[in-house]
Write a structure and sequence with these properties.
It is a single chain. This protein is an alpha/beta fold. It has one domain (2-11, 24-92). 18% of the residues lie in helices and 31% in strands. The chain contains two helices and seven strands; from the N terminus they run E-E-E-E-E-H-E-H-E. The strands form two sheets. A five-stranded parallel β-sheet has the order 2-1-3-6-7, with helices on one face. A two-stranded antiparallel ribbon has the order 4-5. The longest helix has 10 residues, at 77-86. It is globular. The two termini are 23 Å apart. The mean pLDDT is 88.
């Protein structure tokens, strides 16, 4: 299952039973208890670890869900720090 965090781009999801688009942090409690890869598309995480688009901590997602890996199209030092601390693989596509 891939969890997508994005608010600015139009997404065309095909076979969307494998994708979840997170628009609000409160939606996490309704997700299945399974493993997730998190795809961050043009997401800004500030120095405190807050996802600007969701106004919540990115670590809240990692702590609540079973996150295997994170894919991001932006380089972010705080995201690198969080992934390193939680021992989660990070792929930066730039």
């Amino acid at each position: 299952m891939i969890l997508i965090i994005n608010h600015d781009k139009e997404l065309n999801l095909y076979n969307n039973k494998h994708f979840v688009v997170l628009k609000d942090i409160c939606e996490i409690k309704h997700l299945k208890d399974e493993e997730y890869t998190v795809l961050l598309l043009d997401v800004d995480i500030n120095d405190d670890g807050i996802i600007k688009e969701l106004s919540s901590f990115f670590e809240e997602i990692i702590i609540t869900l079973k996150v295997l890996a994170i894919i991001s199209n932006k380089v972010n030092e705080k995201l690198r720090e969080i992934c390193s601390f939680h021992k989660i693989s990070l792929l930066e596509i730039i």
